[in-house]
Amino acid sequence: MHVVSNTTPLCELFKIEQLALLKETYGSLIIPSEVEEELRLSQDTVIGLYQTVSESDWVSMRKIEQTSVLDALRQRYPKVDLGEAAAIVLAQELSADLLLLDDGDARAAAVSEGLTITGTLGTLVAAYETKRISDTQAQQILGQLYRGSFHIGETLYHKVRQRLGLSG
Known about the structure:
mainly alpha; two-stranded parallel sheet
């Protein structure tokens, strides 16, 4: 299974010490070199993330083969940042099974490009539905994401709680 990821799922799960959830759910991830650069530049704000990802045996970096496709995608979707656009293009080049994105504009662009997407919360739901984490773990992780720096609107929070079978 080819799964391409943008920066946000890696960053947000790392912040709450749940980065392994990605490995447990997908086995391995592929990130474009632009995302690797974003991770490297985030070293001052998310200490340890770049080193953890770069030393892992389950995250690999790939360069985009056709940069002209990246340029064209960025022109079509000007609200999509470089890392997100690169993840979309890499997912297309690899015929990826899944693309991990959280930004709404990037998700809309990826869907318009015919890609199958999910994000940080979708990863949580997938881990729960495949019994990789328990009810208690799912509730704890969702709570940490909701209370942390990851932006989750109240409506989405309650939808995810329902999907996880959590009351209230």
